[in-house]
Amino acid sequence: MPQNKKEGLFFTTIVCFSMVISMSAYNLLLHGQFSLGNLFGGLVPGFIVAFFFDVLVVSIPAKKIAFALPVNKEKKLHMIIAVSSCMVLGMVFFMSMYGVFMQFGFTENFMSYYIGAFSKNLIMALPLQLLVVGPICRMILSMSRQTSWLKETNS
């Protein structure tokens, strides 16, 4: 887990990017629209929106909820699972809205499209975060601590 602001920003960026590219590919495949052009064409706007929601909307409430859950706070793995799960729920809530709006606009069928998108995204995003993206990004963060660029300086 990040230990300072630089590490937090770095970790958030790599997790956000990894989840956006993975979930974008997943959704394009679901809709039969996968191509590298479509994937990379939506990557920058998707990342910007996801980063905004992550940092400014989801992160603080998700962490508050996770720390309020009846989990063993002494066990790092329990807290990682709690925080990651709460983050995924919040991000899927907002990013499914974003995806439906970008694909269909705000029509009379928005809620039915949204419910379908939310459930399909949650089924993919939760295990992706807990089993693949989270562990890989924590490993990258751990390896990056070997370098001096993530360490806080007093200057």
Automatic annotation (TrEMBL):
The chain crosses the membrane at residues 9-30, 36-58, 79-101, 121-141. InterPro entries: DUF2798. It comes from the Bacteria. The keyword Ribonucleoprotein does not apply. Keywords: Membrane, Transmembrane, Transmembrane helix. Pfam families: DUF2798 (PF11391). This is Integral membrane protein. The lineage of its organism: Bacteria, Bacillati, Bacillota, Bacilli, Lactobacillales.
